[in-house]
Amino acid sequence: MSTTIIETDPDAALLPERIRRFPFPFATDTYRYSANVEPATKTAPTEAGSWGAHLVDIDEHYLDELAERAKVLNRDPSRVNVLPHMRPAVWDALTTLLSSMADDYPDTMFFHREGNVCQWKNGLQNLEVEFTVGDDSSLPEGPLRFLGSQIQDDIILLDVREDTLWLDAGLVTFAADWSFGFDVGMNFLEIHHPVPRVKEERIISRAEQFLLRLQPGEQFRRTNWTMTIGRRMDTSTETYPEWGRDRSTIAEDPAMPEKLHLRVEVQHLIRLPHSGALLFLVRTHLLPLADIARVPAWREKMGNVLAELPDDMAEYKGIIRYRKAASDWLLAR
Predict the structure, then answer these.
(1) Which domain holds residue 155?
(2) InterPro entries, from UniProt (predicted)?
(3) Could you report the per-residue pLDDT of 244-285, keeping only the tens digit for each?
């Protein structure tokens, strides 16, 4: 991520919160894969406002996105998977994140732990529960599914063994053109093998070494991006038949500026304090081109990024059939 000081547009205060809080990912007019890792919970300024002050971000879409997650899980329970040896890591993630939320949102969240007995209150859901760490039956659907009902992020847990990271647990309902079920049990390099350029540039191997060196309690973050047609959170490969055809028609659609969204993932990387596992949180943000264009600097940067992006990267992101139409529209404003 860029450390350049950003001058906020003087009209930004008039923009709606969804724009002012959006994690716009482009610092320049070009984009290439990079680790772009920085410490978590540091406010990141943009031309429209800022983002990133909290580990778990709660916004206006909180209840709607959790309701959508529940529908996905009821339709496809395979989106949750915990290999047996990862149970302690799941409990570690749950208590770590609930405690963080209570600290960041004291008006609506409360967490107290005495021994292994925990109390959790979520005022946004009118929820009060008591559970026992280590006792899966104390939470009706288990600790991981419960955590997924409290945060908007997808949750991935990586085990550390043989000097390698392994995807051995998670809850993923909002994947961007990949399959959590397919990747469970794979190691870090296998998961990222399809990404173009990263092998030659050793980005993934360097990222893995960085993660392996994290100390318990350390927290970092990075961003990633693609584009999505409609405000569709679940664009996993399992649901491709529902949305894949839209990629071939959106460029000619007069409503493209309202339908085509920049999709940004804020990915948090956390070494859990007790289990030592790596917690990988993926929070998805969507903003249509029509809103991007309301911030002049964003309109120009994104238009130039799309125009310059190499074809192999555009193909991998699934945007090659409409990226020119999107770029032309943004740069013509």
Answers:
(1) 12-86+151-332
(2) HODM_asu-like
(3) 999 999 999 999 999 999 999 999 999 999 999 999 999 999
Sign of CA dihedral 244, 249, 251, 253: negative
**Is 6 part of a structural domain of the chain?**
no
> Is 87 in the active site?
no
The number of folded domains in the chain is: 1
Q: Is residue 98 part of a domain?
A: no
- Dump pLDDT digits (tens) for 184-201: 888 888 887 666 665 555
Report if residue 121 sits inside a domain.
no
Tens-place pLDDT, residues 131-188: 999 999 999 899 999 999 999 999 999 999 888 999 999 999 999 988 898 888 888 8
Report yes or no on 124 lying in a domain.
no
Are residues 257 and 325 in contact, defined by beta-carbon separation less than 8 angstroms? Answer: no
- Residue tagged active-site, from 79, 145, 222, 271: 222
User: For residues 234 and 240, what is the distance between their CA atoms, to the nearest angstrom?
Assistant: 9
